[in-house]
Amino acid sequence: METPGNKWLQVFEALANPHRLRIVACLRVNRMYVSELAREVRMSRPLLYMHLQRLEAAGLITGNLELSDDGKAMKYYELTEFEYVVTPESITEAVRTLTDKAAPETPHTKEDN
Amino acid sequence: METPGNKWLQVFEALANPHRLRIVACLRVNRMYVSELAREVRMSRPLLYMHLQRLEAAGLITGNLELSDDGKAMKYYELTEFEYVVTPESITEAVRTLTDKAAPETPHTKEDN
DNA sequence: ATCACCTGTAATAATAATATTACATGTGTT
DNA sequence: AACACATGTAATATTATTATTACAGGTGAT
User: Fold this and answer.
1) How far apart are CA A35 and CA A22, in angstroms?
2) Domain HTH arsR-type spans what residues (chains A, B) (predicted)?
3) Contact B28/A89, CB-based, under 8 Å?
């Protein structure tokens, strides 16, 4: 789950969603707390939560809970600086360390392929 | 469906799968026909078909049907040369042309967010 | 105490992606 | 004619993702 190959896959999975792309674009302007961001992208907060977790798990954003002046807890998310150059070469390199539990020893189907 | 933003999303969706990453890595060595590739990646042909279509739709590979010397029809797939530099900036730029039919005018939920 | 904000999550519904099975077609060879 | 190998797809099952609903808790201000 932490090899370079798996990391790449996780990044692609994180970016394979229009909402999450918008979130990234949104956070690039400046960091935001969750409720604020929910209003901005017009999304329910629980749903936004899921998307944020996927982005954070991929290492594209980071969140930290802060205490505002008036004592309210606010979770701010901000962008991580990242740069992935996606080419056949880089993908090939990533695949070398892809630990896929679903790499079968035997084919899934009959020899009808 | 053909704006730069949508194209980016399609590329991310295409690469967000371990099998498809392996297919790309496989085709980088040299082009292959479908049945050959199916044996190589140990996958049923119908399933491989679906993955190939997703990769081709994203413009990462191209396939063309050829006739072998002994008259058999064989569909060869080969890699496209591509390079996507994934950064907060490039994502922001892509989002500008993201035509998401699911961009609601009103929030999905009650004002409970 | 009620309101207006905020965080966090569990349970579920709805939808999309993935995978399998079964079949259609064609060729050339034994 | 039966076999080995190729392409192509329709129908279905399985699994994962996405989305919603309904709650829990906290703070400070009216």
Assistant:
1) 16
2) 10-96
3) yes
CB B10, CB B55: distance < 8 Å:
no
Interface test with A, best of B41, B45, B95, B112 (most A CBs within 10 A): B95
In this complex, which of A15, A79, A113 lies closest to B44 when CB atoms are compared?
A113
State whether B35 and A113 contact (CB < 8 Å).
yes
β-bridge partners, A86: B84
| Residue A69 to residue A77: CA distance in whole angstroms | 18
In angstroms, the CA A48 to CA A42 distance is 9
What span, in angstroms and rounded, lies between the C-alpha atoms of B6 and A21? 11
Interface residue of B92, B101, B108 to substitute, partner A, most A CBs within 10 Å: B92
Does position A8 have pLDDT exceeding 90, yes or no?
A: yes
Residue A71 lies in a domain: yes
Is residue A107 assigned to a domain? no
If you ran DSSP here, which 8-state letter would residue B80 be given? P
Q: Which domain holds residue B34?
A: 4-95
User: Per-residue pLDDT tens for B42-95?
Assistant: 999 999 999 999 999 999 999 999 999 889 999 999 999 999 999 999 999 999
For residue A8, give the chain B residue with the closest CA.
B16
The structural domain count of chain B equals 1
The CATH number of whichever domain residue B45 belongs to comes to: 1.10.10.10
pLDDT band of A100, cuts 50, 70, 90: confident
